[in-house]
């Protein structure tokens, strides 16, 4: 029986527009200039991270019909950013969040296949879904997709995209030694897919990926979401950053992968996490509390609770108690464009009230205490130990690491924590593979298109 320790997978994310990002900090840089993306990606590659990750925002978020103040910076196009980063990195994976609801399989397959070719096999697609009319207005599809069909469309989109990626068989491209040109078989790139959401056929334009096909990422919390992710994804973004609930989720999703006919080690589980490092544990804790208080202002706390309560809570004092009224899930959405992560509004409100009462916290303090992303706080040695222990305890296979400070916040993690993880033997000293699948320890997938 092997006693070797699991290798820690590391992804880096750039915060973008949300309350966790300290855009007011004197050392903060732009969230849309290429220099910020380049600095974060180069820093991650210097730290031997597996990939760089971008979230996606298809619409500016709104509160009661008005755009959030912190959202007016906007979001640039994911593919343009990642393609640019392919030119300034050599080993780092490039993962983009692209919606399966508002994009067509041919376009999705072609864009990711192109990114994979340009980067020599480093592309990854984070598959997300959406059904809301608010986002759909930008695509002339407002309200067209019932909530129950979002995973139906996503599953068909993934199936169709995989067929397109695999439509070029091994050996489809051959060299004509006489002319020096490249020729392809007559049926290269031929595809046809028919389902309830798509009816497409034609000829794909991009050869098969250097890594077989781009890596698929997904997030699944609901039973339907977990089944979809376990059956289709190469890695899942876990919402759990603390044991034992993280370990329970880990075992559940891995078991679902086995039930779907897969090996458990071919599905990686990755929660997101921020970090705060200090010269002492007390200093780190002090820094963390100061950062958290700046992130969660009274206005921010009310907005986060308004999403849960689905009510206008502007009349409540952030330094007073939690709202004494119940959430209103049947009303039209008061907050638009934010991903809703709570499965049961009433139960979540009850838990918040219990925490507030037990810890004697104000409304703002309760939100700061309960809505954080599980920061890892301590000395560099303590942060490295916590990450290693979490992974070896099967809470995850690694972490997606971000910082409140864009773009230089990741530097401290790479300079102080990464060497300690390498000393523990759980993080590579250098890249050994040539593709993202190599670095993640994932096999090249079998071609889904039968070879004739």
Overview of this protein structure:
There is one protein chain. Helices cover 36% and strands 15% of the residues. The protein has 452 residues and is α/β, with parallel strands linked by helices. The chain has 2 domains: 9-274 and 394-440, Alpha-Beta Barrel (TIM Barrel); 297-370, no CATH class. An 8-stranded parallel β-barrel has the order 1-2-5-6-11-12-13-17, surrounded by 6 helices. It has a 3-stranded antiparallel sheet with strand order 4-3-15. It is globular and about 70 Å long. The protein starts with 8 loop residues before the first strand and ends in a 12-residue tail after the last helix. The relative contact order is 0.16. The mean pLDDT is 88.
CATH evolutionary superfamily of the largest domain: Luciferase-like domain
**CATH architecture verdict of the largest domain:** Alpha-Beta Barrel
The termini sit apart by: 42 Å
Number of strands: 17
Number of helices: 14
* Broad CATH class of the largest domain: Alpha Beta
Describe the sheet with the most strands: 8 strands, parallel, barrel
Name the poorly predicted regions: none
Family: Belongs to the NtaA/SnaA/DszA monooxygenase family.
Keywords: Flavoprotein, FMN, Monooxygenase, Oxidoreductase
Protein name: NtaA/DmoA family FMN-dependent monooxygenase
Domain Luciferase-like: 28-393
